[in-house]
Amino acid sequence: METAISVLIGIGLSAAAGLRIFVPLLVMSIAAYSGHLELASGFAWIGTLPALIAFAVATALEVLAYLIPAVDHVLDVIAGPAAVVAGVIVTASTVVGMSPFMQWTLAIIAGGGVAGLVKGLSGVTRAKSALATGGLANPAVATAETGGAATLSVLAILLPVVAFLLVLAIVIFAFKMMHKIIERLRGA
Fold first, then answer.
1. pLDDT tens by residue, 160-177
2. In this predicted model, what pLDDT tens digit does every residue of 140-154 receive, in sequence order?
3. Hey, what's the torsion of the CAs at 38, 82, 178, 156, to 10 degrees?
4. What is the pLDDT of residues 37-93, one digit of tens each?
5. What totals of helices (H) and strands (E) does the chain contain, helices first?
6. d(CA 62, CA 71)
7. Cα–Cα distance measured from residue 96 to residue 18, given in angstroms and rounded to the nearest whole number
8. Do 6 and 95 meet the contact criterion of CB atoms below 8 Å apart?
9. How many Cβ atoms sit within 10 Å of the Cβ of residue 53?
10. From the CB of residue 45, how many other CB atoms can be counted at a distance below 10 Å?
11. In Å, how far are 99, 113, 144, 156, 158 from 151, measured between CA atoms?
C-alpha cells in the first residue's frame, strides 16, 4: 500500500510540475524536511535545509517571472522540456519500495508524461488567452497556474488519491481536447 501511495504522490506532483516547475519541488522539500514525506533512496537531499532554501528562491523567481509579459513567453519555451524532467525527478524521488528499474520506468513514463501533458495543456490555454486578450490576461492565467500547482502539490502530499483523481480528470480532458482538434483538422 505504501508503494501505491508513493506512486500517486509522484504522479500528483508531476502534474503540478507541468504548471510550475519549482512549486512541487518546494512543497516536497518542505514535506520531507518536516518529516511528512518519505523520499526514495538517493533523494534525501531534497529534504535538506539548503535544498528547501534553493527551491524557495527558485519558486519565487519563477512565479515572478511569469508575471512579466515578455518573459512568460520565453519561459514557456524553456519550461516544456524542463517540466518533463521535473516530472521525472519528482516521481522518481517519491516512489519507494520498488526496484530501481521499475521506479525509473514509472518516473519516465508516468511522471514525465503527465508533466508534459499538463504543460502542453497549459501552453494551449496561455496561447488562447494571449490571442483573445492581446496578452493582457496572461498575468491572471499565470496566477491561476501557480495556484493550481500549489494546490495540486499540497493535495498530492496530503490526499494523494484525491490528487490522482484530479490528474486523471485532467488527462481525460486533454485527450478529449486533442480528439476535437484532430476532428477539426480532418474536416478542414
1. 999 999 999 998 988 888
2. 888 999 999 999 999
3. 20
4. 999 999 999 999 999 999 999 999 999 988 887 787 788 888 889 999 999 999 999
5. 8, 0
6. 10
7. 22
8. yes
9. 12
10. 12
11. 30, 20, 10, 9, 10
